[in-house]
């Protein structure tokens, strides 16, 4: 959301400094998700999350084309789906089909979340934005942000897209109106057995709390199963629990039997920034600090809704306005598979 918002603001001519706490982009929740671009077929009609998922679907094609980003348009299937899900998709304007008791969702896709995140930041930089890494905000006051290392940045408006730390950043500006806790999602990565190809995303029945364990293909030919949904308090615990495999694999094998003979090549965990007291999708100017715009509690659809979120941020900060076009660009070269990158960083 931070990189998308930086790009949206830069396209509108704002002077932007993008502050990243880690040494590189995409080492937090942005790089430890499924990479699935959801259609919103199962989202609650009328909610802000649903609105921004659907708006992002309209904004996405020209952005992906201009930035040369990969998108595997594989579609998804949910076996044993109730007709209500098909009806819900229709209310959201999402194409689905009921076939022999299964719900087919042709618009579901997969991308590389790290390349996407970095490409957004690179595009913002080409429009004049400045990126500063290893800048963990430690103090806010007098229109100035200060890092733990003593660096300072002046800003008329602060857009708080700090993910797991969004509540902490808000408190630095005098806003203690919300809290964030980590919801751990663990994933297992497999080499599919010889001759077996997973052609579509396999979905379970979603609940209000989680979309459940999925099985899905990656751009580089792997198969991923997960995630779990483990609520915790430690925002630094990116470990994969020993019991995660037994919680994920039986469900995944039931959905795609070839996994029983597959070789596991990696595991990783993401920490989704869940809002306390049911908070979901807080995107608004702070009532405690006029110069602060909070973008928080974007629990699990941040990648999917990021362009719509960024457009909303630009409207809050700048009001109505025209965007500069995106110049065509080559996508950033990945430094190894995204699903391995963050796990190795956290382990180190």
Give a brief outline of the structure.
This protein has 8 helices and 19 strands. It has helices at residues 2-11, 48-67, 83-91, 113-126, 166-172, 244-255, 302-318, 338-347; strands spanning 17-19, 36-37, 76-78, 97-99, 102-105, 109-110, 130-132, 137-141, 144-147, 152-154, 158-160, 180-191, 201-203, 214-217, 223-226, 230-231, 263-275, 282-285, 292-296. It starts with a helix and ends with a helix.
CATH fold name, please? FAD/NAD(P)-binding domain
Structural class: alpha+beta
> Could you name the CATH homologous superfamily?
FAD/NAD(P)-binding domain
Order of helices and strands: HEEHEHEEEHEEEEEHEEEEEHEEEHH
Can you count the beta strands? 19
- Arithmetic mean pLDDT: 95
Any chance you could write out the topology, listing elements then pairs?
Layout: H1 2-11, E1 17-19, E2 36-37, H2 48-67, E3 76-78, H3 83-91, E4 97-99, E5 102-105, E6 109-110, H4 113-126, E7 130-132, E8 137-141, E9 144-147, E10 152-154, E11 158-160, H5 166-172, E12 180-191, E13 201-203, E14 214-217, E15 223-226, E16 230-231, H6 244-255, E17 263-275, E18 282-285, E19 292-296, H7 302-318, H8 338-347
Parallel strand pairs: 1-7, 3-13, 11-19
Antiparallel strand pairs: 2-6, 3-5, 4-5, 8-9, 9-10, 12-15, 12-16, 12-17, 14-15, 18-19
Folded structure, characterized:
The strands form 6 sheets. Strands 12, 14, 15, 16 and 17 form a 5-stranded antiparallel sheet that branches. A 4-stranded mixed sheet has the order 4-5-3-13, covered by helices on one side. A 3-stranded antiparallel sheet has the order 8-9-10, with no helix packed on it. The protein is globular and about 60 Å long. The protein has helices spanning 2-11, 48-67, 83-91, 113-126, 166-172, 244-255, 302-318, 338-347; strands at residues 17-19, 36-37, 76-78, 97-99, 102-105, 109-110, 130-132, 137-141, 144-147, 152-154, 158-160, 180-191, 201-203, 214-217, 223-226, 230-231, 263-275, 282-285, 292-296. It is α+β, with helices and mostly antiparallel strands and 348 residues long. It has a single domain (2-347), classed as FAD/NAD(P)-binding domain. The chain is built from 8 helices and 19 strands. Helix 1 runs parallel beside helix 4 (113-126) and helix 1 crosses helix 7 (302-318). It is 28% helix and 24% strand. The mean pLDDT is 95. Strand 9 and strand 10 (152-154) form a beta hairpin.
